[in-house]
Design brief:
The chain is an alpha/beta fold and about 400 residues long. The chain is about 50% helix and about 10% strand. The longest helix has 17 residues, at about 35-50. The chain is globular and about 65 Å long.
Amino acid sequence: MKSIARLMAASAIVSASGAMAADLEVTHWWTSGGEAAAVAEFAKAFDEKTDHNWVDGAIAGSGGTARPIIISRILGGDPMGATQLNHGRQAEELIEAGLLLDLTDVAEAEGWRDIIHPVSLLDSCTVDGRVYCAPVNIHSWQWIWLSHQAFADAGTDVPANWDEFVAAAPALEAAGKIPLAMGQQPWQSSGAFGVMTVAIAGLDAWSAVNIDKNADVAAGPEYAKVFEAAANARQLAANSNVQDWNQATNLVITGQAGAQIMGDWAQGEFQVAGQVAGEDYTCLPGLGVNEVISTGGDAFYFPVNGDADVTAAQKELASLLVSKEVQVAFNLKKGSLPIRGDVDLDAANDCMKKGLEILANGAILPDGNQTLSPDTSGQIEDLMVEFWNDPSYSAADAQAAYAKIISRAD
């Protein structure tokens, strides 16, 4: 009876206004091949299953490029109908200013708290007990992607962990390969550092710094090992002269580079290229050292709009994004994990199955966007840009600067 009541309430929410068809502009930064294929599933479902129209507002570049544009439009009184952001602390000020639509009625009617797993994803959308976003996936940074072709050309086995990869780097270089592919955008180097932290310093040290903001741990021996490893990785990536993350992924796909530290969204690029996990490439969660996934990801927020028809369309889209069918279609192409634990993913490839198994075992940690403010994250990105691009910047000096940032983190 409870589920029937929820279904009736949800139906009432999306149809009570007898809304007219609305054109809903949806902004996002999903423009690579794999990303475009995935977001097309959202657009298709919205156009086919509602009376409304998806107006695509793709913004070329990364989230770092798109977020300021998105936030500026909302603050400037030119809001879109819906927008991608990362669920976490990025929208705090917009929520406090009353600029984002409260979705609590949809979430309660459909029982989001019971079906979204882990529930921390919904908690990241919740402020003062009210829900302001619809999570759409679980994206984890904690992966390294390895090219079988590159290692075969180098005459060495595909590594099973980070230490084996570092040991194989000279053979890759001798074969004319780039050991580590990395783009030049700040978030890429910062994200790679975060992955190395979990693998090398360990979960306890990562949690002490990123959750408890413990500057002593950031300045301590566990993090010293991470900065030393990052300095080595900086050298391994020295000839990776590309800008965008998907260009770096393509170096791995084409066998020009041995590996890339990148989130599971890279999987969509391998899929578009027709490569098969376990045959053409290998994925190692936690760099093959600490098999864990971070439970960050993407969510959609809906700026407040005075038009009742637009508001109705926004709530219909929010409901659709969380639905079983759409979750499966989107995440299979995106390479991310669904936010529901009750969906059928028999079609998942080996890498996605690894992630699902880790998720089921509870070996998870929050994403940095959920624990650090945008200001703190920005300071870390700035530091990482300087560190990764200046070979003379020592590991010890970078660690000292990092610990100082953590000491004043909010």
